[in-house]
Amino acid sequence: MKQIISLYIITFSLIMIGCGEPGVDVTNSQYEEKIVVEGFLYPTKSVRDIKLTRNFALNTEIDPNEIILTPSNNNVNATINDVQLFYESQSGTYFSDELIPDYNTEYTLKVSAIIDGIELYAESTTITPEQGFKVINNDLGIIKYRQDDPIIEFNTSPGTDFYAFSYRAENATVENFIYDNPFVPDLKPEDIEKDFNDFLYQLDLIINVESESNKTIQHKLSGLDMWFYSDYSVIVYAGDQNFRDYALTVKDVQEADGNFVEPQFYFKGDGIGIFGSAIKEVVTFTLTK
Prior knowledge:
about 40% strand; globular; Immunoglobulin-like
């Protein structure tokens, strides 16, 4: 049995643990400096786009120049399986041309940095998915809105029960928004402009997939993930446990009694965020009236 969950892509933020009445006690004594990691490994692809940033205390003025952790400002040292990562100033991310991740292999990220004069250390481990995940048809062609039944078919990777679908309308504008959609009626252009990215970026998840070798899954695209008459790209991920648990908990940070809880992090030391791995493929189509 598989379960399907739809949610918006959201930006990572630190949620402090509260207790008792709903709310967050904003006191500087609760603040702890953290290394914030956003990084993924993809088998057969060189290591790219490892983001290392920092958190800040609530109700403090944030200097944009201090958000990204750099070797010059923070004495950053970052490795994966003892292979050195290098800083790329234009993108503000870390990379390695030497390390090419393999399938079904363990990789450990180690990061040290100085934040506000304090030396911090973070460590996280991911095991890349086994080989096997493969999209059967990467080009779905032209799809008529609410007339066709677009389906992404793919073979699973053994042992991987989590698959994510990241949607992007490539040429979305206020003019080609689907105003006559049945989900949110009576929207006006100013409404779209205000929440443009909420409509532009969509994320759909499948969990608890029976991941036998070469098992074929059919995933029907939902109108809730398509808000523009546009060309679309859908990145399909077969993700590891770190990816799975982070995606499932990053939005659900408040319990029924009002207490706040952190998303699921897999870090030792002073780290928060996500260091995961996945196999990914891209599916394209054009949505028309």
